[in-house]
Design brief:
heterodimer, A: two-stranded antiparallel sheet, 2 strands, disordered N terminus, B: alpha+beta, eight-stranded antiparallel β-sheet, globular, disordered C terminus
């Protein structure tokens, strides 16, 4: 994990907490889209979508370029990495601990069985 | 049945769930008795847990320490706020690396799930500075090692 990407992560988490913003990211996973295309499946005004895009851009999760009057969006390659890395690290350490706990619980049960014999 | 799930709640919380075959009372004991805690909450490959003290009652404190045997390590201290035996624990904790992170308030719920337990943890996300400090302790590497060791164990069991 690259420590220099970490300060951006709080903003990234805040951005990811909203279901509409997660859905926007999912749509962008297929490639670059204009604001109109992004807004189409949502029952939401274009200014509302634009506000979500501003949050995603501020969190470093998407990038926008200027193409005449259009400002198409795409996923920022490094944007999701810090969030995913952090969650993946937590997932690994907790999975390992709880797998060990499974074995401890099995031993506890075996011992209880012996005590009541 | 044992798969761990993790999801974000709001902008500052992570919810973790995990199912266990054992009943809630046993899973709760494994979270509150030092002799049991140190069997599963231990460190990574080559690490040890020289300090595992817990005064498991409301208002009581706990103190866990891990060392890598090479001058590195970290500790966690905390206090129990509410305890409902076999059902729920609410506690605060902080990680020293060596400077303490801000307090993290963690709720652990032990719910009956058939003959087993559905464990749910609700914790706050550490701030960016705390995460960076955690990574500098080498925890990330240690996690990988621990995971690899576990895979090896699983292969042994499968074979």
């Amino acid at each position: 994990m690259n420590v220099s990407t970490l300060p951006a992560t709080d903003a990234a988490f805040a951005a990811l907490a909203d279901p509409t913003r997660r859905a926007i990211l999912a749509r962008l996973a297929d490639g670059e889209l204009g604001v109109m295309d992004i807004a189409r499946p949502f029952r939401m005004s274009q200014p509302a979508i634009s506000r979500h895009l501003k949050v995603l851009e501020g969190a470093g999760l998407i990038e926008r370029r200027i193409d005449g009057t259009r400002r198409p969006c795409r996923l920022a390659p490094q944007g999701l990495a810090s969030v995913e890395d952090w969650l993946a690290g937590l997932h690994r350490v907790m999975s390992a601990r709880y797998d060990r706990l499974d074995r401890v619980l099995t031993e506890m049960e075996t011992q209880t069985g012996k005590e009541t014999e | 049945m044992t798969k761990l799930t993790m999801r974000l709640e709001g902008d500052r919380h992570v919810i973790v769930t995990r199912r266990f075959a054992a009943p809630p009372q046993a899973v709760y004991r494994a979270h509150t008795e030092a002799a049991l805690i140190r069997q599963w909450m231990l460190g990574f490959e080559g690490w040890s847990m020289p300090v595992c003290e817990t005064d498991s009652r409301p208002g009581g404190a706990f103190h866990f320490e891990w060392i890598d045997g090479d001058g590195g390590g970290f500790k966690i201290t905390g206090e129990y706020i509410e305890m409902d035996p076999g059902k729920r624990i609410l506690h605060v904790e902080r990680v020293f690396m060596p400077d303490p992170t801000p307090d993290n308030r963690i709720e652990t719920i032990f719910a009956a799930d058939g003959a087993g337990t559905l464990l749910t943890l609700r914790m706050e996300l550490p701030d960016a500075e705390s995460r960076a400090a955690m990574i500098e302790t080498g925890m990330e590497e240690g996690m990988e090692e621990s995971y690899a060791k576990l895979d090896a164990l699983d292969e042994l069991h499968a074979g």
